[in-house]
Amino acid sequence: MSSIVELKSVTKSFGQVMAVQDISFSMEQGKIYGLLGRNGAGKTTIMHMITAQLFLTSGELKVFGETPYENNRVLNQLCFVKEGQKYPDNFRVVDVLEVAAALFPNWDREYALSLIEDFRLPMKRRVKKLSRGMLSSVGIVIGLASRAPLTIFDEPYLGLDAVARTIFYDRLIEDFAVHPRTIVLSTHLIDEVSRILEHIIVIDQGRLLLDEDADVLRGRAFTVIGPAATVDSFAEGKDTIQRDTFGGFVSTTVMGNLYGTDRKHAEALGLEIAPVSLQQMIIHLTNGKSGNKAVEQQ
Ligand SMILES: Nc1ncnc2c1ncn2[C@@H]1O[C@H](COP(=O)(O)OP(=O)(O)OP(=O)(O)O)[C@@H](O)[C@H]1O
């Protein structure tokens, strides 16, 4: 597999603010990445560097094997869909599509029109008259129909209802199966997108906290459910992510190998075992809490 994006010891500071500190990771061709982290973690700064909208302070960045700045060979292969994208005042939806068609070499007009229908977007309406959710849908249509070899979505859902978000995830998976490319999703809706993410990169306070395949990550913790006394005795001394009670039952999520001896022990005790959600894992990791403490759901 070849690397599409490669960061080596990348640092970015804004005056005294160290937004990104000594980060190294790479992204491969044909994978869907989640770029996750709490507010202010440094995700947007990283996306702006990858898309040549910000210079690094130090380190090395290669996109498609080259430095991206003023480099059309790289920029032609990129599509960056960002929250709150601005369009000229007089632009209608149809004008946005026309510009996109000229801009993206792999643009698929038929596909774009089918997405416009899916999202029920009025072609002739001025973009500035669209609702917040409709505006987000325009960005999603562009991101998907661009079929850019590197497509980055930075929180593309502002104002989007649950039906539209589901359409986005479903269309993305369908199209990705036929036209694999590298897709980066930066979002706070981790549970919603977790089924489509193949690789997770978590940034915390400007530093790389995690760079791991989603399945491996899911296998690093599990939930046991059963009578309080049995669950608590099983969890004693283990790194507990979360503990919930309902009636006399307790559900506790612990760090441990989902397929290892801990699981066998839990099974022997007659406890029910369930996989952990990616969101729970990431909240745990970015809260930095461990020991037998429950963390708040965010
Ligand atoms: N132009 C700037 N000038 C000064 N500080 C900045 C600038 N851009 C970003 N920062 C700071 O860098 C840090 C990282 O910001 P960034 O926007 O990359 O975070 P984020 O992970 O995208 O957050 P969110 O999830 O809230 O969008 C924050 O502390 C932010 O205040």
TrEMBL record:
Top-level taxon in the UniProt lineage: Bacteria
Nucleotide-binding found in the keyword field: yes
CDD domains: ABC_DR_subfamily_A
Database matches in Gene3D superfamilies: P-loop containing nucleotide triphosphate hydrolases
Membrane spanning residue stretches: none
Domain ABC transporter as annotated: residue spans: 5-230
SUPFAM superfamilies referenced in this protein's UniProt entry, alphabetically: P-loop containing nucleoside triphosphate hydrolases
Pfam families: ABC_tran
Example of a GO MF term: ATP hydrolysis activity
Keywords, ordered alphabetically: ATP-binding, Nucleotide-binding, Transport
Name under which the protein is recorded: ABC transporter ATP-binding protein
Organism taxonomic ancestry: Bacteria, Bacillati, Bacillota, Bacilli, Bacillales
